[in-house]
Each structure stands twice: as structure tokens, then as C-alpha cells.
Amino acid sequence: MTGSKKNTRHTASNHTSWVQKFESGLNGQSLRALRQRAIADFDRLGYPTTADEAWKSVNPSALIRTDFEPAAPASLADAELEPFTYPDLQGIHLVFVNGHYAPEHTSDIPEGINIANLADVYDQPLVKAHLGKLAQTTDLAFTALNTAFMRDGVFIHVQPNVAVETPVHILFITTASEIPTISHPRNLIIADENSQLSLVETYAGTGTETYFTNAVTEIIARDNASVDCIRLELQGTAGLHVANFQAQLGRNSRMTFHDFTLGGAFVRNDVNAYMRGEGSEATVNGFYALEGSQHVDNYTLLEHAEPHCPSHELYKGILGGSSRAIFRGKIHVHQKAQHTDAYQQNENILLSDNARVNTKPQLEIYADEVKCSHGATIGQLDENALFYLQARGIPKAEAKRILLRAFADDIIGRVTLAPVRSHLSDLIDTRLEHIDAKDTA
Amino acid sequence: MSSQARELETLATSDYKFGWVTDIEQESAPPGLNEDIIRFISEKKNEPDWLLEWRLKAYRHWLTMTDPLKRKKSEQWAMVTYPDIDYQSIVYYAAPKNAGDGPASLDEVDPELLATYEKLGIPLEEQKMLAGVAVDAVFDSVSVATTFKETLAEAGVIFCSFSEAVQDHPDLVRQYLGSVVPHTDNYFAALNSAVFSDGSFCYIPKGVRCPMELSTYFRINAANTGQFERTLVIAEEGAYVSYLEGCTAPMRDENQLHAAVVELVALDNAQIKYSTVQNWYPGDIDGKGGIYNFVTKRGACRGANSKISWTQVETGSAITWKYPSCILQGDNSVGEFYSVAVTSLKQQADTGTKMIHIGKNTRSTVISKGISALLGQNTYRGAVQVLKGAHNARNFTQCDSMLIGDQCGAHTFPYIDVRNPSAQVEHEATTSKIGEDQIFYCNQRGISTEDAVSMIVNGFCKEVLAELPMEFAVEAQKLLGISLEGSVG
Fold first, then answer.
1. What is the share, in percent, of chain A residues with pLDDT greater than 90?
2. Residue of B414, B418, B431 lying closest to A357 (CB–CB)
3. Which of A128, A186, A308, B71 is the most buried (most CB within 10 A)?
4. How far apart are CA A171 and CA A201, in angstroms?
């Protein structure tokens, strides 16, 4: 019902009334104007097509053709969540099941940090001031849908001069359901001046049926703040995942973002780091290991609006089966952003005849005192390295795995949270064995 | 800052060195585009029915297409902006009046015309003796004189204007016309297919190495005209040809449209080397006037072991929109693209290449150097596609940009699509500027800033300039110097 049916069958007035009906089921209507604007934007934009430059070579039809119902709340036992948590991670945990906040799983929250379910704090001035400001709905159809139908999600405010030592782990999980369901998780994170926060987002699904998670996360890192984000995509085999991650960086702040995509049938990630303060630094890295007919699309934008901002971007991928990976990254250097130092790289290894990679690393530069470069490679494992290992008595299959693992380690090794890193490491090992076995079989 | 303002001013007021107008009586069609105009052009050129039909088919298809500017914003990809083009105000056919029957030899060519070419530095007669370059000069829409025809004929090479080829070699034209760039390809190619007025035709028979470099010189002279030329180069099995193309246009306040199509066909073991030096009028510092250079260039490596190499030096035009491409169909075929694009003043360039790997063991190299100065916007846009059957395909792409001044832009948009696991594709790009320390170092050794810039820029472009034939390399180096005059304060 939530505007996820073929748009030809629906009229704009229909959509508006749906939003009103949806809203009346919530407590409070303080977001009415925002929701109305979003649905109007969605009606104007329509679903993206392959003719759109931002969706070129992507086939979003799976997202559009299916009739989705809003996902219903469900309760899960701790044991059911276990596969998606990190055993040694001593953190603050929040769980959302089918897009609904599950407070029973929330752990204790230390001082200096406000954490709440977004739906409970719509009226807070900070939320009112920032929600929907970074994730604009004017040209992103799915973000518009999220904004119109958003409900639960995480709101975090780290107070000035507070370094939150315990990492925050947010788990969005979708349970098995016979009919295709949709949820619109929405997160707003504000790290105030001189604060520090470490965040882990996990998106997962337990079933094998089709469902759609359409998530939006907005992060504001104020002056001198430091924010580390890790995102794990472990959606179910038929899961559809569209996520928009928008971060804004204040003066001398820093933000790191690491994305690991292993699950999902269709994944689209928009990641946007907007360096709005002088001397801010953004790091955006990603890794994907795909099999079967998985389709992963990473669309990133590192926007340098002020001078003296370094940015680093590295995405790596391993593709088996008939999987498809798309990488589109852009470094945009404004005229004012002199002394920018930006680097962007995308590397891919194709393991099977039917896998396909599209990559488009882009530079858009309007300042002259800059150091910007990018690169992209698509290839296979290095024959010489393989031979070197084999010559030392390591069987070929094992040697291949070592090299693939080394390729992945470049990104895994950058994750600073040890419990997450070691868990990730195991997950990726299993995945690589799986891909490799399938493609050599 | 004041010195920069002064430089800007001198530059704005300094003359485009090729901006004179030749005073020749023109015979032209009334402005506007409709089926009658197409019939008029076709009749003027005494074309066979099939060609008229082909033109009309292209025109009817063009009518169904959307102007790239009028597409939805989210579907527009080119980094260029320009006001709407009124296709009904363009003159689609303009010919110097006394060229009606075509000159039989150089002596019959209007002396004014010859003087024009003198000014451009391509004296036809002198070249005939010294350079050994056969020139097909296209003035507005009609090919004026072709030198060295006899010498070429002895080798079996056909090199003539497109109109002549339609009369004398209709079968060849019919076989290859539109086979690389179909009339449905894009908006401007469709327009060209409907109204093309002339161009060059070149056929190198089996096993022949063309004894000399072939050259075409284009010039837009008449006001309100568009130039829609069409070039077709066919290299039969084992043939080799090096083809050069140069362009200029007079200074005018209004914009002029140039929508050309170039098709190259290389069969087994054939090689085509196609070099362009483009110096159309770029407009002034306020963006007034200048040529819209919307060109479709594509080569098909149809045969095994064939090779097509594009080299371009683009210094002119208000807007350049051009992607010389290679379809690497034959096994072991090779595609190359070497490009220098300069945008100064208010110029915009969106240029690059497409390498489509279809055959086995196909290789491609792309070297692109973009230089932006003053208010110029320079974009490299290139596609590398490796299709499923293209085993062991290999591509290497390098795009370097240089920014001179803080008002300009340099952009890189590569599109890479790989569907074969044995392919190896690499892309790298860098952006840099001319360092003050470099200039200082040169100044200290008694080299003026202007010369230092020219030296550094020429060094930056060396890999591309080295690919140009000798005569062009010299001209290109000079052009780079002229285009960037006054851009460093």
C-alpha cells in the first residue's frame, strides 16, 4: 500500500491520501509538511528508469513490479538475532524488526548520548531542525518514498565534548513473510562539537522471500567531531535493499564509512559525504563479494565544498556466478575547495564467465590547486602470484583463496572495531569459499 | 589579480587568428529544414533515388527523436550547456557560386578561395610540390579542389569528394554508407544523414599502402550555415592509410552548427590512422559566437588484425561534443585514441572515446590530455565495453587534466562495462596544475612565462602530439600556444 506499486496505476491524489492515512496511524503529525513535500516530489519524479544517468545499467524493475505491503511488527527471540550480532562487541544495541522498533532488545545507554526511536522524538527541536535536510527528496525517488512513509529508526545525539566509548550497533532485521513487504528505516545521527561516535549498522533478513528495505541515514558531524560507521548488508537471498547514506562534515571533523555487501538480490547504496567545513576528512570504503544473480550498485559522491579537505575512497569487489556489480563514484571539487587531496579507486575481480562489472569513477573539478586522481581495474588473480604460491606446495584452490582473501583484506583490515572485524573476516571467508567452489565446479 | 584581469582583457580583444571572412558569392538554399530542402540538396547533387530515400528516412527518424537538450534533466549526461538551436533558421546548403560544375584543376579554383587557404597556411600548390599531401578542401559544404588525384589513381586509391563518389562509385558508397554510424545513431548523426552536403570519400584497395598522407581541410565561411559533411574511409584487406583533417571558421557573433559524421571501415589486416586538428572559432570570452562542434566519428575494425587509430587536437569550437570510437569486431584488432583537448575562454568540451571489444584478443589504448584555462570546462567521457565473447581483451586508459587558473573545470567520466572474466581493463586519471615553482624555475633561466607555459603544456601533451604526422604536429604545437595565450598571469 505504501506507494510501492506500479506508478501507472496510481494518481498523485491517491498517494497524498495514502500518506495522510499512514500518518493518522502515528502519534502526532508534526512531520506533515515534510511528508507531503516528499510524496509530491515522488509523484513528480516517478520511479527511476535505465534512461536516468544515475540508474544507467541498473535494472530497478524488481523494485517496481512487485506489490509490497507494509511490514508488520514481529517479535524475535535473542537466539534468532544471534547470527547478526557480534559476539564480543560490548556495545549499545538497538533492534528494529520489520522496520518497527523492538525496545525489548535495547541495552543500557550511557551518559552523554541521547538515543531514541526516531518516531518517539519527532517533536524534538534537533530532529525538527535536521530531519530531511541532508537527504533531499527533490531528485531521489526512493528517498522521497522513505520520507513520506518513515516511521521508526534511530535518533542519536552525542553531546559536545563527549567521546562515546561503547560502539552503537543498530540491527534492522526483516522476518520471513509470505507476501512481499516493505519497510522504510530512517536514522538521524548528530555528533556535536568535539564528540566521538562509533556506529555499526546491520541490515539483515531471515527469510528467502522477496522484501524491500528502503533505508535513509543522515549523519551530521559538527566541528572537530569524529564518526566511524560500518555497515553490513546481510539481506536475505531475495531481499531488495535501497539505502541512502548522507553525511555532512563540519570544520576539522572526520568521518569514516565502511560498507560490506554480502547479501541481497538487489542492493543500491547511495553514499554521500559532504565536506562543508574546512579541513574535514572523509573516508569511504566498500567491499562486495557476490554470487548467484546478485546485483549490487554503489553510487557515491564525495563533495569537497571547502579548502584543505582530504578524501579517500576504495571499493573492491569479487564477482562469481552471474552477479553484477556497478560502481559509480564521484569526487566533486567546488571552486572554493582549494588544496583538496582526493583519491578514488575501484578494483574488481571477475571469477566467472557470466559475471559483469560496470564501473564509472568520476572527477568533477572546479578548483586548480588540487591533487585528485582516480583509478579502476577489472581483471583476474595475478597468474604470477598464483604460480609463486603453487611453486611452494600450496594447492591451486588454496592459493586462489589466499589471494582472494588478501584482496579483501585490504578493506577488512581498515575496520578498527576488532570484534566486528573478526566476525566480518569469518563471514567473508565463508562467502569466498562458496563463490569459488561454485565457479570451479 | 589586476594582472590577470588585464590578461583577460587583452585576450578578449585579441583576434581569433583565422577569423576573416572570404568574400565569395554563395549559392544557397533558403534557411529551414523540411523534406523539400532535402529534395533540393539531393537534386542539386544529382543523386540517385536510393540516396534521396535514405536521406528522407533519416529525416523522418530525426523528427521522432528528442533534442538532447530537451530531455528530462535526470537523463541528460553531457556536461555542456547551450541555448536552444533553431533548426529552422539554419541554411542547410551553401556553395560558392562558381563551383557549380566543380573545378577540373586547381587553376579553375576561385583565386579568393586559394588566398583563404594561403592564409590558413595550407597553400594547395605548394603542398602539392613539397609536402606530398593530397588535399581535399571542403569550403562550407562543397568540396572545392582535390589535389593529387592522378597520383593516387595510379595506386588504385580513390580519394574524392563525397558527391563525386556518389556519381562515380555508387556501389561502394551504397555498401558502406551508414554501416558504421546508422542514421538512427543519435540526434546529430540523424540530422547529418538527412542533410549532409558533401565531404570526403576514400577507398584503399586490397594490399595497397596509400603512397601519401590524405588530407581534408574544412572551413565554414558563409553566415547562418551549418556544415554537415560526411567522411567515409574504407581500407580493404591489408591496406594502409593515414588521413588528416583540419578545420577553421570565421569569427561571427552568432553560433554555427557543425554536425559531421565520419565512418571508417578496416577489413582484415588493414590499418587506418585518422588525425584531426580542430580549430573552429571558439567564440569570445563572454561566450558570444563560436562553433557548436557536434560530431559523430566511429571506426569499425571489421577484419582480423585490423587497426584504427584516432588522434585529435581540439583547440577550437565553443562547444565540442565528440567521441571518436572503435568497434573492435575482428579478432586481434586494435583501437587507439590519442587526444588533446584545450578549453579556454568560455569553451566547453565533452569529448572522449568508446572502445567496444567484441572479437578475441582485442586491445585498446586511450590517452587523453585535457587542458582548461580561463572559464573553460573540459570533460573526458569515455566508454570501454568488453562483450561476452571478447576473450583476453585488454584496455589501458589514461586521462590527465591540467587546470590553469581557478575559474575553469576539468572532469573525468569513464564508463567501464566488462562481461568477460579474462579481460583486463585499467583506467587511471590525474588532475594537476602548472606549478608556480615550475614557472619560476623557467623564469629564472630567462624563459618568459608565456614560453614556459607553452613548454610545459607541450610536454604534458607529448604522448599525443608524437602520434600526429609531422606537418600536423608542428601546427598543433603552435595552436596550443595560441589557444593558451594570456591564460597565465
1. 52
2. B418
3. A186
4. 6
- Local structure of B258: helix, strand or coil: strand
User: How many Cβ contacts (< 8 angstroms) between chains A and B?
Assistant: 121
Contact (Cβ atoms closer than 8 angstroms) between residue B229 and residue B245: no
Confidence check: pLDDT of B365 > 90? yes
Check B74 against A52: CB less than 8 A apart: yes
Judging contacts by C-beta atoms under 8 Å, the chain B residues touching residue A329 are none
Is pLDDT above 80 for B353?
A: yes
Question: Per the CB < 8 Å rule, is B75 touching A52?
Answer: yes
Beta-carbon count within 10 A of A90 CB: 10
Residue A203 has pLDDT above 50, yes or no: yes
Are A262 and A294 spatial neighbours (Cβ–Cβ below 8 Å)? no
Cβ distance B411 to A363 less than 8 Å, yes or no, reads yes
> Do A371 and A341 contact (CB within 8 A), yes or no?
yes
- Which cell is A375 given? 583509478
pLDDT at A7 over 70: no
A241 touches A201 (CB < 8 A): no
Average pLDDT, chain A: 88
Amino acid at B80: V
Residue A344's closest CA among A301, A382, A309, A384?
A: A301
pLDDT (tens digit per residue) in B183-218? 888 888 998 998 888 788 889 999 998 887 777 766
- With CB atoms and an 8 Å threshold, state whether A374 touches B429: yes
Tens digit of each residue's pLDDT (9 = 90 or more) over A149-170: 888 999 999 999 999 989 999 9
Q: Do B345 and B486 contact (CB within 8 A), yes or no? A: no
**Is B401 in Cβ contact with A369 (below 8 Å)?**
no
Model pLDDT for residues B92-129, shown as the tens digit of each residue: 777 655 433 344 444 544 555 555 555 555 545 444 43
Question: For residue A238, how far is the Cα from the chain centroid?
Answer: 18
Cell digits for B53?
530515400
At residue B240, the pLDDT reads 93
Query: Most confidently modeled of A20-34, A83-97, B16-30?
Result: A83-97
pTM: predicted TM-score of the whole model, two decimal places: 0.84
How far is Cα B151 from Cα B154, in angstroms, rounded to an integer?
Answer: 5
Write out the DSSP string of B325-373. EEEE-STT-EEEEEEEEEE-TT-EEEE--EEEE-STT-EEEEEEEEEEE
Beta bridge partners, A296, equal A267, A325
Using CB atoms, pick whichever of A355, A368, A372 lies closest to residue B421.
A355
Residues of B whose CB is below 8 A from A370: 403, 431, 433
Sign of dihedral through CA atoms B94, B97, B102, B108? negative
Q: Residue A143: enclosing H or E segment and its boundaries?
A: helix A141-149
Residue A348 with chain B: CB contacts under 8 Å: 418
Residue in B closest to A359 by C-alpha = B416
Q: Kindly list the domain boundaries of chain A, sorted by start residue.
A: 72-381
Among candidate residues B355, B376, B193, the one with its CA nearest the CA of residue B282: B376
The type of residue at A160 is P
Confidence bin at B8 (pLDDT 50/70/90): very low
A-chain CB neighbours of B429 within 8 Å are 361, 363, 373-375
The CA distance from A49 to the nearest CA of chain B, in Å, is 9
> Closest Cα of chain B to A177: distance in Å?
35
Q: What is the pLDDT of residues B145-169, one digit of tens each?
A: 455 666 778 888 888 888 888 888 9
Tell me which residue in B411, B423, B425 faces A364 most closely, judged by beta carbons: B411
Q: Determine the Cα–Cα distance for residues B234 and A439; give it in Å rounded to an integer.
A: 44
Find, among B9, A91, B245, A307, the residue nearest to B1 by Cα.
B9
Q: Is residue A355 within 8 Å of A322, Cβ to Cβ?
A: yes
* Phi and psi torsions of B450, nearest 5°: -55, -50
**pLDDT, tens digit, 9 for 90 and up, residues B375-409:** 888 899 999 999 999 999 999 999 988 888 888 88
The cell numbers describing B181, all together, are: 554510424
